[in-house]
Specification:
single chain, 279 residues
């Protein structure tokens, strides 16, 4: 379990790097979020292809509807969060996005039949209250934060699907499958929104794709090693690096309600992870 936790911490540090780079491209360089989403999948696919051991990739996996479902979940999640980053501050986007691990937690119990404790459930419900403080439905909620919530819902399903399909293929083959699916599905909108390239934005685009690819590979590895309900709370670690990156790159700092919400999310997530599941 300890190795899985360390891997999750690394993965959760990489995701805000990829999304921070993505926010720079959609807000400062005028990139269309759907082109950027497509470039992530296409570049990530090319990056992981040389890392596939010979004979590990079986084309028959693409005839499995579950592989396509998992791929479409992450396609919808990344497209939604890049749309959210056009208008909403990075820390607030990630706060709203964290409805995802809460959904994953309960899906793992219902769908994967994983065992949890009452205390664990209560702590994650407290985390959901933190999400509400960040999103502020009915008052301060914006369209951007709405897309962030939508992204989180797709991502929560994707996290559970990682555990569900963890034994269907090796981690790098599973990673390649959703990258290839994303590159194919988003190709029409990607090609239709090709931006003007400069050396600087090409570098940023590559960083965004590489960080996202590496994070998702580590997620697949971690979810082969431990139950989804135990790992889901560690997704909250993204909040720390997302808040720091939002401040350093964009001067974005959450308001008082959002800070309380973020603290509730972090505290409840870490506490839930420390509670041992029922045997």
């Amino acid at each position: 379990m300890l190795r899985a936790i360390v891997i999750m911490f690394v993965a959760m540090s990489l995701i805000p790097i990829g999304d921070g780079a993505g926010k720079m491209l959609v807000t400062r360089e005028g990139f269309n979020p759907y082109f950027l989403a497509w470039s992530r999948f296409a570049l990530g696919m090319l990056m992981v292809l040389p890392l596939l051991p010979k004979g590990q990739l079986d084309a028959r996996m693409f005839f499995d509807w579950r592989i396509w479902l998992r791929g479409m979940l992450i396609v919808c999640s990344i497209s939604s969060i890049l749309t959210a980053l056009q208008t909403a501050p990075l820390p607030d986007v990630f706060g709203a996005f964290f409805v995802g691990p809460i959904l994953s937690f309960f899906l793992s119990v219902w769908f994967l039949k994983e065992q949890i404790t009452k205390a664990n459930t209560i702590l994650l419900l407290i985390g959901f209250c933190g999400v509400l403080l960040v999103v502020k439905p009915g008052s301060g909620m914006s369209v951007g934060l709405g897309f962030a919530v939508l992204s989180g819902l797709f991502y929560g399903c994707f996290l559970t699907a990682n555990r569900w399909l963890s034994n269907t293929a090796p981690p790098r083959a599973l990673l390649f499958s959703h990258l290839a699916i994303g590159a194919v599905v988003l190709l029409p909108v990607g090609v239709a929104n090709i931006p003007v390239f400069t050396p600087a934005n090409v570098i940023i685009m590559t960083v965004s794709a590489a960080a996202s690819m590496a994070a998702n590979l580590l997620l697949v590895v971690a979810y082969r090693m431990a139950p989804a309900s135990r790992l889901a709370p560690f997704v909250y670690f993204q909040l720390v690096s997302a808040t720091a990156m939002g401040w350093m790159l964009f001067g974005d700092l959450p308001d008082a309600f959002s800070i309380v919400g973020l603290l509730l999310l972090i505290g409840s997530g870490i506490s839930a992870a420390l509670i041992k599941p029922k045997s």
